[in-house]
Amino acid sequence: MGRFALFAVSALFHAYIGLRLFPDLGAWAPANLVLLLWLVISALLMPLGLQMRRAGGSDALAWAGLLCMGLFSSLFVLTVLRDIVFVVYVSLQWLLPSLDWGNWQADSALAVPLIALALSLVGFFNARRTAAVVRVDVPIAGLPAGLHGFSIAQISDIHVGPTIKAPYVEAIVAAVNTLGADMVAITGDLVDGTVAQLRAHVAPLADLSSRHGTFFVTGNHEYYSGAPAWVAELRRLGLNVLMNQHVVLEQGAAALAVAGVTDFGAGHFDPAQASSPQAAIAGAPADAFKLLLAHQPRSAPAAAAAGFNLQLSGHTHGGQFLPWNFFVRLQQPFTAGLDRLHDLWVYTSRGTGYWGPPQRFGAPSEITLLRLVPGV
Known about the structure:
- Helices cover 41% and strands 18% of the residues.
- The protein has ten helices and twelve strands.
- β3, α6 (195-202) and β4 (214-216) form a beta-alpha-beta unit.
- α2 (29-55) crosses α3 (59-95).
- The chain is elongated, with a radius of gyration of 24 Å.
């Protein structure tokens, strides 16, 4: 989308909010003025912030634009919901002329920005805190004794970029290292920017510690940010980057094949890197437990067909904040948590960071500690 079109779309959506709320805020003149100023500033800063974010420009402008985007999103959704309620109210009033909702229009017009602001403040706190640890037991029928209790620390979708820097990453690394996991899995969308811009802010990942090391697979945002350079940089840091490949870990008498695929859409960027669970596990021992790291849950049908036991994914952010979690299922088969597809278990992380607006509401970030346990 061109620069002019971006500003035009932003202005149009902000104008909708103003046109729907201003007429009913007549009794609240100060609120009208504050809302007007914010709408004008936000309509300008949102496109500027997005451009700075994409071009690697001013972090301050990116911060301002993305903060505005978070508040705008809540304000827009609440305005639409208010209009839906208003249509219902008008319909009921037509059926029941005596129905009187008093000052509902004026009160709701004031409540919408106040509620939006409250949601944004809570969402900001949730997004900026270090993700909590979520512990999940995965029951596996016939699990070899050597893998009983095998633990995997999963982090995903950190989105290091204009608003997520080294201190945020360092806090995640410190939290993961306290878990004493057997291995660490990073399931893509680590960065939003080039290696030159973000090398120092990703560097703390070299300090991740576990028994068998850290494994990484690319997400779609790696391809937006220059995947070949990032693969080389992460390997330089000591991470095991799996590009339709696997490695076999030995634990006691048991073998665990850790496979990783490129992002589901990687073939659009480079046909040679098209995602393939089948290729990733080719040549693995037949009796090995088969674990697939795949950024998008959409890899699950191919993973099930290839004979994997467990797939770890991210990408969805669990929707990140209401109401977008209701729309994730339109693109992905799973939104968050542990699911099953035939004989394949699929765990979808809500993500350890956030994308875009520093906001999470109804979909908290997570560091996941998965443990393999015997099942039936």
